[in-house]
Structure to design on (363 residues):
């Protein structure tokens, strides 16, 4: 079923060109993809409306459609000649060309990002620090207008303040933003000397940043309104502080838990021991129970990092790394030989299981 283009635009069959154009603009504005991001239905509607207008605004195509109810040879919207014309019209819609409304000079300032490196100890305790931010700020001399104090903006003589210039494009008159004033409708003939008419000036600002205890590497803090200043009364952007945590000499972090390798001797593992271990900002006592195994992880509860925006702390884990002596003095040698002699015929559970498996295999 061919669609009724009049119905799509909501106009009568006798609609004039001006009525068509008005209806089309209104509908296209409503369902333009820029105004309805990620809305499939609006996008479909937008295409439909655009196609209807493409056909009905062309006298030849409209006559064909009126007579046969179809688009006829050459198609409607796919016609390349039309494609560019419609892009032209749209550019005008959204840059303020439609209805002669002027493009606002005000604009929001840019968002900025600052990378802040902190130590693991600082991440654990939380820290308040100062950062130096280079940014554009509203000009003191002109108050952000970009106009030299005592002067004012003048009406653009090319577009007479309308911000747009009309250009005839076949049977359609297309409005384009004025090239002299960039659509503002006003000219700045006396730019501010301090900011060269930009309304903003470079500045370095010392800001205080509060890093919450337990923050993790790669998290961002948003400082609302601390980005670049707005243009001509526009609001400022935001500042994002990206927190990077420097690698620690000893500790590895996993969420709120900390880990480190702890070298120990055979006798400490066998007999058990109390050892001094490093924790963040100091040392603590760690009890190695008798019979501990190499690579076993022992934990000190609550000695890790504070949990971000939660109560309590993570744990501190110590991986027992067995260090075998590479040299022995006479006394040590004697003691070990005595130990070996005393242990003859005794096997631990691992050795026992291994021996049994060997027996099964070889009889
Ligand atoms: Zn102008
Ligand atoms: Zn200025």
């Amino acid at each position: 079923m061919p669609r009724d283009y009049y119905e799509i635009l909501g106009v009568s069959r006798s609609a004039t060109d001006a009525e068509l154009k008005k209806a089309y603009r209104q509908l296209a504005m409503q369902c333009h993809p820029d105004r309805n991001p990620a809305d499939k239905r609006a996008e479909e509607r937008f295409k439909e409306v655009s196609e209807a207008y493409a056909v009905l605004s062309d006298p030849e195509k409209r006559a064909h459609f009126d007579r046969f109810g179809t688009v006829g040879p050459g198609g409607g919207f796919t016609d390349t000649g039309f494609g560019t014309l419609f892009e032209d019209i749209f550019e005008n819609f959204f840059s303020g060309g439609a209805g002669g409304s002027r493009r606002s000079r005000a604009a929001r300032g840019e968002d900025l990002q600052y990378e802040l490196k902190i130590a693991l100890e600082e991440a654990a305790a939380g820290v308040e620090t100062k950062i130096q931010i280079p940014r554009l700020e509203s000009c003191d001399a002109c108050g952000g207008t970009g106009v030299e104090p005592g002067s004012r903006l003048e009406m653009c003589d090319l577009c007479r303040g309308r911000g747009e210039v009309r250009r005839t494009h076949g049977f359609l008159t297309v409005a384009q933003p004025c090239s002299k004033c960039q659509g503002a409708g006003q000219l700045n003939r006396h730019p501010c000397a301090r900011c060269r008419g930009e309304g903003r000036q470079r500045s370095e600002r010392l800001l205080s940043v509060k890093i919450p205890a337990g923050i993790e590497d790669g998290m961002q803090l948003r400082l609302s309104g601390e980005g670049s200043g707005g243009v001509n009364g526009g609001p400022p952007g935001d500042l994002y502080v990206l927190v990077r945590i420097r690698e620690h000499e000893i500790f590895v972090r996993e969420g709120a838990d900390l880990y480190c390798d702890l070298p120990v001797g055979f006798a400490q593992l066998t007999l058990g021991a109390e050892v001094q271990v490093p924790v963040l900002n100091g040392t603590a006592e760690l009890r190695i129970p008798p019979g501990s195994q190499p690579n076993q992880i022992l934990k000190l509860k609550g000695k890790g990092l504070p949990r971000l925006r939660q109560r309590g702390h993570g744990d501190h884990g110590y991986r027992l790394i067995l260090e075998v002596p590479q040299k022995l003095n006479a006394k040590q040698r004697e003691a070990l030989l005595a130990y070996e002699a005393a242990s003859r015929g005794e096997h631990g559970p691992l050795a026992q299981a291994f021996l049994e498996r060997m027996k099964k295999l070889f009889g």
The first helix runs from residue 5 to 9. The longest strand covers residues 127-138.
